[in-house]
Amino acid sequence: MGDQPLVTLKGITKSFGPVKSLNGVDLTLAPGEVLGLVGDNGAGKSTLMKVLAGALQHDGGQIAIDGRDVRFASPADARRERIGIVYQDLALCDTLDVASNLFLGREPRKGPFIDRRTMHRKAAETLSELHVRVKSTHQEIGQLSGGQRQAVAIARAVSFQPRVLILDEPTAALAVAEVRQVLRMIRDVAAQGVGVILITHRLQDLFEVCDRITVMYEGRSVEDEPVSALDIERLVAMITRSGSETAEEVA
Ligand SMILES: Nc1ncnc2c1ncn2[C@@H]1O[C@H](COP(=O)(O)OP(=O)(O)O)[C@@H](O)[C@H]1O
Ligand SMILES: [Mg+2]
């Protein structure tokens, strides 16, 4: 494998009827890397990540994992390649408890019954490995704070042992301490070799956790820079394409 990227997207296109949402996107991700994916509303970030997670099928272009061409017909296909995603609107079940949400659809069983004791023990282990604190794994999800819900959603994705973890706006609605918690989870997961793609409008977060940033604009990837080469002003200029060089390219 060597220098082979974990994920390579090349020339990805996707239309919804007359709307061309993705118009030739390139992106790479290395193991253990945290990649920030930014761009204005409607740039195509969520659509691109749904393609990578198998929730949408692209029209053209290639997806390669470890340099091997793949095509995902469903989220299950992407999960088999160990690609995990936490969507913007967390798909959690408010009326179930923390442990049930973590193991929804793959609860440990004893004969025909859900083995609740094992499920709660495993849930507590998973959460503690990720430094997520909840009062009890028996708490209903609907009673948790936004940050705790986000943490549980990430823990659920991590418990599938992904090699790629996609987080779409995980900190958008969170209080300051909760943001810290999510950023810490991202660093922990990446330190274990997982490639993380972080979509966020909170540009300051990118500078705390990302190694590299890819900028999308109107369905295309337009910039790709290591964070060390950027500051907030430059990044804002790249996102809005107001910088001098980028303005020339557009013309
Ligand atoms: N299911 C859909 N049907 C029609 N248009 C869509 C659909 N999903 C996304 N789009 C359009 O694709 C473009 C990119 O959207 P999106 O990927 O959500 O952007 P971002 O996440 O960067 O804000 C937008 O113009 C959006 O309206
Ligand atoms: Mg989006």
Automatic annotation (TrEMBL):
Q: Which UniProt keywords apply?
A: ATP-binding, Cell membrane, Membrane, Nucleotide-binding, Repeat, Translocase, Transport
According to the UniProt record, one GO cellular component term is: plasma membrane
**Source organism superkingdom:** Bacteria
Q: Give the membrane topology, semicolon-separated if more than one.
A: Peripheral membrane protein
Q: Which residues form the ABC transporter domain?
A: 7-243
Main subcellular location of this protein, as a coarse class: membrane
GO molecular function annotations of the record: ATP binding; ATP hydrolysis activity
SUPFAM superfamilies (alphabetical): P-loop containing nucleoside triphosphate hydrolases
Entry-linked InterPro entries: AAA+_ATPase, ABC_carbohydrate_import_ATPase, ABC_transporter-like_ATP-bd, ABC_transporter-like_CS, P-loop_NTPase
Give the range the annotation lists for the signal sequence. Answer: none
Localization per Swiss-Prot or TrEMBL: Cell membrane
The protein in question is named: Sugar ABC transporter ATP-binding protein
